[in-house]
């Protein structure tokens, strides 16, 4: 993607749009599997058109060895979407999003095992405090087996698969940016089609005008356009700056949940959310790094 706007502005814009996802998903009356499939199809079509118009070719000859990793990451992405959309159905957008943002904590814990990285004292503190934040959000002992807990578990499941996507991407060296995203969307489609046919069935015909508009926004804008902006900006920005700006997403999601959707957060959950976001952010900040 040619640079048509400042990378920092692209990242801020993309993360702000990501933060509004729950608002639009709530207005699409199809199953989570169907929604994930249509999201992937619409985004893949949009990116395919972009690649065609810009005459960009995917270097298949150079990425043969990484195709299995791309397929696996695409499958994980599709499952991640399904679980996140289910989380929105059972709990508030803010609680679902904060549960989902436990993914960086999972990555921090798994990296020492996969990449033989040392787990520092700082990382241990961040893991413990973020986990405490998650406990405060769930309110273990208070909400029991209610819908909120089910939503939180779906959110955590989504976090596990999002962390899986992040970890798999660490092994993919020769495919960058928009090409990687396009191939991941295609592989997500491959796994989601049989899932929808066997598990959910097709109900898109029942969508009303509002539902169709929201579906197109989620597929084309939240996924196609925004993912392109997101990955294009990541190539231009230092990792730490990108990590800090990525927290715009959950902050926007929480703000929309409370102010527009009218979904209340009790004081304990607010503190829990601050612990998760605060300590995962601190974990990504390197002293004396230029941002």
Short description:
The chain is mainly α and 291 residues long.
Q: What does this protein structure show overall?
A:
The chain is an all-alpha fold and 291 residues long. The chain has one domain (7-284). Helices cover 74% and strands 0% of the residues. The chain is built from 13 helices and no strands. Helix 1 runs parallel beside helix 12 and helix 3 crosses helix 10. The radius of gyration is 19 Å and the shape is globular. The two termini are 23 Å apart.
Sum up the structure in keywords.
291 residues; 74% helix; globular; mainly alpha
> What can be said about the biggest beta sheet?
none
pLDDT averaged residue by residue: 84
Work out the helicity level.
over 70%
Number of domains: 1
SSE string, helices as H and strands as E = HHHHHHHHHHHHH
Strand content: under 5%
């Amino acid at each position: 993607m040619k640079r048509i706007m400042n990378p920092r502005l692209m990242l801020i814009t993309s993360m702000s749009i990501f933060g509004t996802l729950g608002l639009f998903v709530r207005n699409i009356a199809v199953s989570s599997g169907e929604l994930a499939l249509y999201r992937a199809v619409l985004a893949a079509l949009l990116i395919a058109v972009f690649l065609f118009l810009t005459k960009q070719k995917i270097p298949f000859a150079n990425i043969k060895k990484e195709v299995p990793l791309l397929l696996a990451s695409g499958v994980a992405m599709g499952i991640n979407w399904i679980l996140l959309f289910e989380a929105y159905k059972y709990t508030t957008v803010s609680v679902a999003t904060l549960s989902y943002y436990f993914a960086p904590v999972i990555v921090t814990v798994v990296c020492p095992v996969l990449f033989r990285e040392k787990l520092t004292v700082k990382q241990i503190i961040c893991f413990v405090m973020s986990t405490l934040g998650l406990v405060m959000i769930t309110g273990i002992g208070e909400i029991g087996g209610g819908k909120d807990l089910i939503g939180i578990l779906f959110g955590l499941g989504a976090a596990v698969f999002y962390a899986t996507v992040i970890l798999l991407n660490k092994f993919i060296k020769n495919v960058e940016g928009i090409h990687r995203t396009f191939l991941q969307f295609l592989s997500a489609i491959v796994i989601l089609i049989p899932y929808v046919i066997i598990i959910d069935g097709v109900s898109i015909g029942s969508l009303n005008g509002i539902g169709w508009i929201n579906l197109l926004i989620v597929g084309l804008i939240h996924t196609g356009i925004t993912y392109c902006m997101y990955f294009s900006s990541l190539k231009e920005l230092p990792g730490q700056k990108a990590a800090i700006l990525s927290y715009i997403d959950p902050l926007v999601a929480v703000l929309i949940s409370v102010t527009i959707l009218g979904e209340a957060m009790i004081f304990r959950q607010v503190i829990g959310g601050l612990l998760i976001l605060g300590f995962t952010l601190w974990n990504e900040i390197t002293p004396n790094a230029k941002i």
